Amino acid sequence: MALIKNTDKNIQLSLKLLNNKFLEIKESSHESWIPFALKLDVAGDCYEYEAKRGAVFTLYEINRLIGELEKNLGTKEAVNTFEEIEFYSSQAYFGMIFIDPLEADLVEVEFWFNMDVLSQSETKGYDQGYRFAVEVTDLKSFIAEIKHELKEILIKEG
After folding, report:
1. Which of 3, 23, 24, 106, CA to CA, is 20 to 30 A from 81?
2. What does residue 137 show for φ and ψ, rounded to 5 degrees?
């Protein structure tokens, strides 16, 4: 499971790619579905997509997220610049925006939940989000773990 904490250690984001009944690998990366479980804990308030919910990424979008973050984190380490990245899951589960806070070892993360989807239509009409800073090294580890989990799933599915 990929875990990352903010610099104050009071926000934790966990993401686990899953090999379960919702997994579907096809020839097209746009039609291949990778299930996930996700949890954002903000000072004790938890927002979660559990494995049983069937939340999925397309293979295309998870590869895009990994690739863009790896490229931009390399640039951040080499020349201390980071191009903003916006990532929104195609099924509208959540969005993330990665921003350069103009500090050498940090990246700012905005994380937005679609409250309609998260609450299974109990709450409608808005997103709820949080902004927090993470260490570059921690974000690299987070992405490396996601990449490892994806590789393991794809190897098993052959």
Report:
1. 3
2. -65, -40
The CATH number of the domain holding residue 79 is: 2.30.31.10
Q: Is 39 exposed, middle or buried (0-12, 13-18, 19+ CB in 10 A)?
A: middle
pTM above 0.85, yes or no: yes
The chain-wide mean pLDDT, for the chain, equals: 93
Strands 2-5 and 11-17: antiparallel
Q: Which two tokens stand for residue 53?
A: 């919910």
Please give the tally of structural domains in the chain.
1
- Model confidence over 27-52: pLDDT tens digits? 899 999 999 999 999 999 999 989 89
pLDDT of residue 117: 74
User: Following CA atoms 8, 64, 76, 105 in sequence, which dihedral angle do they give, to the nearest 10 degrees?
Assistant: 10
